[in-house]
From TrEMBL:
The lineage of its organism: Bacteria, Bacillati, Actinomycetota, Actinomycetes, Kitasatosporales. Heme binds at residues 67, 107, 156, 353, 357, 364. One of its GO terms (biological process) is response to oxidative stress. Gene3D superfamilies: 1.20.1370.20, 3.40.50.880, Catalase core domain. This is Catalase.
Length: 699
């Protein structure tokens, strides 16, 4: 079926550069662009040189202001398709017919860092989706956390000022580990729940393709009868939710600052299209007050165990943009871009956003006509009396006011029976007051719920993250105040953090919350379907390798969807043990273990005869080990691997190929086991992603 957004893009593509010679912006042909027009060979440049002036002027004006938050990102096109009609709850056209695919553009982003900052920083990730529906654009502007740092949008400038680089020296870039953020946190306990998410591994996703997305706010579905239902939106990645290890994330920033952007780009180019399921939590209006928190409070989730997430459709991203600036940079999201059937609630954070996004685009995109930029254009027709302004691309004809008779009364208003957007007729009563609702007051119960829902290793990572972040805070009183706040969440957590950062352990508080945990919050319970699709596996080879066995395992892993690369001390080829050659994909000095999910050592793979090369390969393996990645070894490589392992694992590695908790898989098979048994066990270890219960390596 034709994709209306892609057809529309075709109409806006620039002239094919192969269709003729170079021209100026005015279409005048150019035959020389390497020398400016001068008065004599060594004379001054002439004002008359319009080509020179145009070229330089255009260059001087290439940049636009970056987004004030979420400056760095990556985007892709795709489609959304509902599983079934959602007519019972919403009349949104794109949620009615399972045979209809609605085009989408999604932009993922980090929040704190500028446009040129690294990808793998500890941060929230933006997950913004523009649905080009038949009834106009709908934007679901979400994050990979289901909660937000503040409850009222009027605090957004304060929060963003605190987390952004400090005003006097513009440091740190892409990091929250600094005084001003933690000063704010320690004084503003509403931040705590989201801070707990920020300290968890959710804040260092392995891939944009492996993270959840959330609409965060409670929105409202409205059906054709005008009935409202509260709704929370969830995106669940088909590949499961996977994260990096903090040490690895930091190293990856240097090895590949584009780690997440490249991953998204490469997998789409390779045809391994990322996919998410859209789910909704629905709450009838009659049950609005049945919770021990306020549905309008964006620092709270509705636990999935309390209101299950119902899958309603899936989204596939299958096309990279043609031009980063034109599309990913100029895409303009806005929470107020809604379509009939989707409406707002009085969440004060959402209300503020509904002002901010349009406002910010006016500055960033230079005027009011940014909806005409191809990536922002609806595929639904646009007719109104809005006119003129900077960058008007359209030639309007006829009258420009309503009502009119001279223009035939056009454009006319929709008839009462037509499916126009009609705001939900919620009853609102009240005095004008500047006060937070008392129903927003509890900042600790859900923070504690998140903490108590984590697996042991997740709790350990959270404590480590607090210690890292607060350990970088210079003001000791800020460290102490934050720890004090944590003591209202959980005393053991506060004590563990305090111990690592040199502040006194806080006193135990009576009545710290003991909420029922929500297992759905743990990464342990979001591992995906056990596939190894798109996992990057490094196979270390050198001269003397067993090529036949290497190819057999590589092919089996590739069949499972993994991306397997043969890595040798030098690029080119390596000699098989029998003298034939095997092509390699990359040279070891150009890669690093942090760029892969697992390592495989085929027979002869760790034996180049060159001590420096073997040492580099072993460093690669040691680094993978430290980051909990699966390591597979075959034949003689098992002994090499066993030599570097801690005693506890050495015997297991030498004796048994079954996946241990430790993710070390070898082919020292028990009697009767086959090569397929090795591949199966290694695949299982890769699918499990990381193996936390590993003893430290001997030094
Ligand atoms: Fe925001 C960008 C997500 C609260 C004001 N926000 C922006 C983007 C995402 C979010 C994903 C990047 C969109 C893109 O890729 O272009 N923001 C959120 C979420 C929030 C949130 C999930 C809380 C639930 N934001 C929020 C508040 C305000 C803003 C409370 C202001 C009152 N956000 C903005 C902005 C940005 C933005 C300043 C910067 C660039 C842009 O809008 O287009 O208007």
């Amino acid at each position: 079926m034709a994709d209306p957004k892609q057809e529309q893009r075709d109409r806006f593509r620039a002239e094919d550069p192969a269709s003729g010679p170079m021209t100026t912006d005015q279409g005048v042909t150019v035959d020389h662009t390497d020398d400016s027009l001068q008065a004599g060979e060594r004379g001054p440049t002439l004002m008359e040189d319009f080509h020179f002036r145009e070229k330089i002027t255009r260059f001087d004006h290439e940049r636009i202001p970056e987004r004030v938050v979420h400056a760095r990102g990556a985007g892709a096109y795709g489609y959304f398709q509902p599983y079934q009609s959602c007519a019972e709850f919403t009349r949104a056209a794109f949620l009615q017919d399972p045979s209809v695919k609605t085009p989408v553009f999604v932009r993922f982003s980090t929040v704190q860092g500028p446009r040129g900052s690294a990808d793998t920083v500890r941060d929230v990730r933006g997950f913004a989706t523009k649905f080009y529906t038949s009834e106009g654009n709908y934007d679901l502007v979400g994050n990979n956390f289901p909660v937000f740092f503040i409850q009222d949008g009027i605090k957004f400038p304060d929060f963003v000022h605190a987390v952004k680089p400090e005003p006097h020296n513009d440091i740190p870039t892409g990091a929250s580990a600094h005084d001003t953020l933690w000063d704010f946190v320690s004084l503003q306990p509403e931040t705590l729940h989201t801070i707990m998410w920020l300290m968890s591994d959710r804040a260092i996703p392995r891939s944009y393709r492996m993270m959840q997305g959330f609409g965060v706010h409670t929105f409202r579905f409205v059906n054709a009868r005008g009935q409202g239902t509260f709704v929370k939106f969830h995106w669940k990645p088909k590949l499961g939710v996977h994260s990096l290890v903090w040490d690895e994330a930091q190293e990856a920033q240097g090895r590949d600052p584009d780690f997440n952007r490249r991953d998204l780009w490469d997998t789409i180019e390779a045809g391994a299209y990322p996919e998410w399921e859209l789910g909704v939590q629905l709450v009838p209006e009659s049950e609005e007050h049945d919770f021990d928190f306020d549905l309008l409070d964006a620092t709270k989730i509705i636990p999935e165990e309390q209101v299950p997430v119902q899958p309603i459709g899936r989204m596939v991203l299958n096309r990279n943009p043609d031009n980063f600036f034109a599309e990913t940079e100029q895409v303009a999201f806005h929470t107020a871009n809604v379509v009939p059937g989707i409406d707002f609630t009085n969440d004060p954070l959402l209300q503020a956003r509904n002002f901010s996004y349009l406002d910010t685009q006016l500055l960033r995109l230079g005027g009011p006509n940014f909806a005409q930029i191809p990536v922002n254009r609806p595929v639904a027709p646009v007719r109104n009396n809005q006119r003129d302004g900077f960058h008007q691309d359209e030639i309007h004809r006829g009258t420009n006011y309503f009502p009119n008779s001279l223009g035939g009364g056009c454009p006319a208003l929709a008839d009462p029976d037509d499916p126009a957007f009609r705001h939900y007729t919620e009853r609102v009563d009240g005095r004008k007051i500047r006060r937070r609702s008392p129903s927003f007051a509890d900042h600790y119960t859900q923070t504690a719920m998140f903490w108590h829902s984590m697996a042991d290793w997740e709790q350990k990572h959270i404590v480590d993250a607090f210690r890292f972040e607060l350990g970088k805070v210079g003001a000791k009183e800020v460290r102490a105040r934050t720890v004090e706040q944590l003591s209202y969440v959980d005393h053991a957590l506060a004590v563990a953090v305090a111990e690592g950062i040199g502040v006194p352990a806080p006193q135990e508080r009576p009545n710290t919350p003991q909420p029922t945990p929500s297992p759905a919050l743990s990464l342990e319970n979001n591992r995906g379907d056990g596939s190894i699709s798109t996992r990057q596996i490094a196979v270390l080879v050198s001269d003397g390798v067993d090529a036949a066995q290497t190819i057999a395992v590589r092919d089996a892993l590739t069949e499972g969807g993994a991306i397997v690369e043969l890595i040798a001390p030098q690029d080119g080829t390596v000699q098989d043990k029998d003298g034939s050659t095997l092509a390699v994909d990359r040279a070891l000095p150009t890669v690093a273990s942090v760029l892969y999910d697992a390592v495989l050592l085929p027979p002869g793979g760790l034996d180049s005869g060159n001590a420096a090369a073997d040492d580099a390969a072993l460093r690669f393996v040691r680094s993978a080990y430290r980051h909990g990645k699966p390591i597979g070894a075959l034949g003689a490589s098992v002994d090499k691997l066993a030599d570097m392992l801690p005693d506890e694992l050495r015997t297991a590695a030498e004796g048994d190929s079954t996946v241990t908790e430790s993710g070390i898989v070898t082919d020292r098979l028990s009697a009767g086991a086959t090569a397929q048994d090795f591949t199966g066990a290694f695949t299982e270890a890769v699918a499990a992603h990381r193996h936390w219960s590993r003893p430290a390596l001997p030094s």
